[in-house]
Each structure stands twice: as C-alpha cells, then as structure tokens.
Amino acid sequence: MPRYCAEAQGPYKASQSWEYEFVGITSYGTPVNVHRLLRKSDLSLAVTMTQATLWGFAGGGSMVLPGICSRESIEWNHRLMTSPTRTVGNDAPNNRMREDIEEATVMSGLDMSLLVILNPALEIVDVTAGTTIAAHRASVEKYKQLYSVSSSEVPEGKLDVGISGSFPGDRFFAHACWPIANLDYFVRDGGTIILACMVEGGLAHYSYGKDYMPYRLEAKRRQKPWSVKQP
C-alpha cells in the first residue's frame, strides 16, 4: 500500500528534533533536517503558490525549507538574508538564499511540485506542475509576465513617494512589510515609502518569537496579554 502524508507544521513542531531526519549539508553550510513523514512517503507533492518574496520567489522548494525542516535548518538558511544578492525578484542561482533552499529540496527527495499563480481576487490564473526546480522556474517566468514592472517605466525617473498595501499577506507586520523591498527599486534615495496595511495580528505571531525572549520578558508578557488577540 503506497504511503502518503499531509501534515501542517508550526513553530512548535519545528523545535522537536526527533521529528526530523538529517539528509546532508548544503554548499552554504545549512544542515538539512527534513520531517520524517516526507522521507517515509512513496510519493511527495508540494502544492504551493508562486509569489515575489525577500528570497527571490516563493513556491516549490520553499515548502521544504523552511516548510518542513527543523528550526536549526531554518535558522541556518536565514543567515543568507544578509547576502547582497538576496533581493526580491532575483532567483537562483544568483540568489544565494534561494539556491540554498533548492539544494535542500534536492536532498529531501521531494518528487514534484504543483504551483499556482493568483490574481488580486485570489483566483487561480495559472497552474504549473513537474519536478520542483524546473516547475518553479517555469512558474516564475509566467509570474514575471503578469506582475513585473521595470523601474525604467516610471515617468521622469524614480518616485518621490511610493505607497503599497500587502493584502492578503497583511495579518502580521513581519510579512506585511515585504512590499517595502519592491518599492525600494522605484523610490529615489531620500524618498518616502508608505506601507498601508491593517496588521490585525500585531508585529508577528507570538509563537514565532517566544523561545527567543529573555525569561523576564516572557513572564511580563504572561501578566499583560497583547492588546491584539493571537489566534
């Protein structure tokens, strides 16, 4: 009987080292610890969305790292956020962070990916499926045709002021701030970037950061809950 699995992973599970299998180290030094359920499955398929992100373009291999990797793997990969080539719209192999993700994906044994592109109404406008890296490259090219704009198209050069929202990814500020990286290409040095979003969940979901807080801050937080309820 073939074995299939579908499981959601949150910050709590990412910290449980016994849930993972070590499969190797990337050329950037990231130890790749992949969830054991993936390794046990006879067929693995990542269903994901292509979008511009801080590590080039999300989708495909992102479902492996950070998707189903341990906290150790995620933190090592995120060191590459400081790489000068880690920019929105700059894909692997030039984007070091994305290349690290793709190396981890190959090591994980993920069989294939199905990637969709959404319009502003959250409707599917394109579907690409195949081996993960090839399918991701193809989906990214389609995404660029739909949504990319060259800064050379801005009348009279760069903008004095750039304004952007980030719906539907605007629940937490940690994700809602991503459009700032896009606008940086279009706004002149010394100009102004305005981010207009609701961030109903606050700066970030508390579970992402609680293990990094000093004990006194954690105790204080328990005495005085956030003004915005966390789900």
The CATH architecture of the largest domain: 3-Layer(aba) Sandwich
CATH domain class name of the largest domain: Alpha Beta
Largest sheet: 3 strands, mixed
Shape: globular
Assign the CATH superfamily of the largest domain. Answer: LarA, N-terminal domain
Proportion in β-strands: 15-25%
The DSSP helix count reads 9
Spatial strand sequence of the major β-sheet: 3-6-7
Low-confidence stretches: 1-5, 224-231
Looking at the structure, the CATH topology of the largest domain is: Rossmann fold
**Share of residues in helices:** 25-40%
Which structural class is indicated by helix and strand composition? alpha/beta
Element-by-element helix/strand order: HEEHEEEHHEEHEHHEHH
Oligomer: single chain
Brief overview, please?
The chain has 9 helices and 9 strands.
Q: What does this entry look like structurally?
A:
Helices cover 29% and strands 22% of the residues. It is built from nine helices and nine strands. The protein has 231 residues and is α/β, with parallel strands linked by helices. It is globular.
